[in-house]
Design goal:
Elements (H helix, E strand, L loop, with lengths): L7 E5 L5 E7 L10 E5 L10 E5 L6 E2 L3 E2 L5 E5 L3 E6 L1
Antiparallel strand pairs: 1-2, 2-8, 3-7, 4-5, 4-8, 6-7
């Protein structure tokens, strides 16, 4: 499987708060698998971050971030979805 970069844009305030919008686009209708996008923001505590996910099932629904053993946040994303994360 070849993984491509996922388009995103981020901003951080002077107080350390910030947000990021991540999009996962699939032009091929045969792409149906959900993948986990990793999100690592140096110096940011994502443990209480708000994640809003929009895909074919959810309409801007708040979902909890998952974390791996290293503390990196993971977002399960379907094809043609986007997530907004605010910390």
């Amino acid at each position: 499987m070849v993984l491509a970069p996922v388009p995103s844009g981020a901003a951080r305030g002077p107080d350390g708060t910030g947000d990021v919008v991540i999009a996962r686009y699939a032009e091929d209708s045969n792409v149906t698998a959900t993948i986990r996008i990793t999100l690592d923001v140096p110096g940011a505590d994502l443990s209480r971050a708000l994640c809003l996910l929009r895909d074919s099932v959810r309409t801007c629904t708040e979902v909890p971030l998952e974390f791996d053993e290293a503390g990196t946040a993971m977002i399960p994303m379907m094809p043609n979805s986007f997530a907004a994360v605010e910390w």
